[in-house]
Design goal:
single chain, 304 residues, Glutaredoxin, 2 domains, ten-stranded mixed beta sheet
Length: 304
């Protein structure tokens, strides 16, 4: 198996989810630090314009979005599973719900002020917020967002009411990692940290998940990761491709994240499974790569 290369930055909660997943599975990985704000020329060289982190690179295959990355890790190393067999849909549903806390927390922190660096706020305002969004007005919704976070925390506290150690029982899985990464970040400010005071089971669970760690990682320069892609070939697709109606392999397409601000990616439609979208593109330095997205959260549109 080619090296697992994670493109991320330390502050990213979603990257923390994948760092823990790698630690849980005991998979060694290479760590490429991506800039927190634009420009990201090396990141875009591999993704074609998708700006979020984390991104997992395996040779010339580039995997975007944590929900796809966790599925890829389960394929590479089935034990321990991030999606427990027979409970895959339940794990996905719980993870999607748990991650509603992310924007509640981010908007709370922006509204409280003084938490994030100014260049971070400016970048998100200009490049990732819908047109017309005014971050200066987020202070007005802080009470609502804190109440929403409390609601989610209460539901999670109730989940542990029977004494279980993890979300689904005695074993940790992807649902725990999806719930952990935002709640772990709540310690960033006293007003958000205070929400945890009445959730002793959640606090104990946080410590259990945190103890998983990140496994063994080795730093890597982005230019070296690009060279890895250039010297590799995308993995061969196995099985029957699942293609949108009216499209065929090689159709010029654009892939758009259903969440605003991720950046659009153009290329040629490549063989994809029922749960993912794959497009083939050519980078000036990386050569031919295949960029993968989870089908349930991205839209693919023919452009030619």
């Amino acid at each position: 198996m080619s090296e697992l290369i994670l493109h991320h930055y330390d502050m990213s909660p979603y990257a923390e989810k994948i760092r823990l997943a790698l630690g849980l599975k005991g998979l060694p990985w290479r760590s490429v630090q991506t800039p927190i704000v634009l420009p990201k020329p090396d990141h875009f060289e591999l993704t074609g314009g998708y700006r979020r982190v984390p991104v997992l690179q395996i040779g010339a295959d580039i995997y975007c979005d944590t929900h796809l990355i966790t599925r890829v890790l389960d394929q590479l190393q089935p034990d321990p599973p991030l999606s427990p067999p027979g409970r895959e849909t339940e794990e996905i549903a719980f993870s999607r719900w748990a991650e509603t806390s992310f924007m509640m927390l981010i908007l709370s922190c922006i509204g409280i002020g003084g938490i994030f660096p100014e260049d971070f706020i400016e970048d998100r305002q200009q490049n990732m917020a819908p047109p017309g969004t005014d971050f200066a007005q987020t202070k007005l919704i802080v009470p609502t967002k804190l109440a929403q976070l409390r609601s989610n925390l209460t539901r999670l506290e109730d989940q542990f009411g029977d004494g279980r150690d993890f979300v689904f029982g005695s074993e940790v899985c992807g649902a725990d990692l999806s719930a952990f990464h935002t709640i772990n970040m709540m310690g960033i400010h006293p007003r958000t940290a205070a929400l945890l005071e009445d959730t002793p089971c959640v606090r104990a669970w946080l410590e259990r998940v945190r103890a998983i760690g990140h496994g063994k990682s080795t730093p890597m320069e982005a230019t070296d990761a690009i060279a890895v892609a250039r010297d590799a070939e995308p993995a061969a697709f196995e099985g029957e491709p699942v293609l949108p109606d009216g499209m065929s392999l090689g159709t010029p397409v654009i892939v758009i994240d259903d969440e605003y601000g991720s950046g659009n990616v153009t290329g040629q439609l490549a063989a994809s499974g029922v749960h993912d979208i794959a497009i083939r593109r050519e980078g000036e330095r990386a050569g031919e790569v295949v960029v993968h997205f989870p089908r349930e959260a991205f839209t693919v549109i023919a452009t030619g």
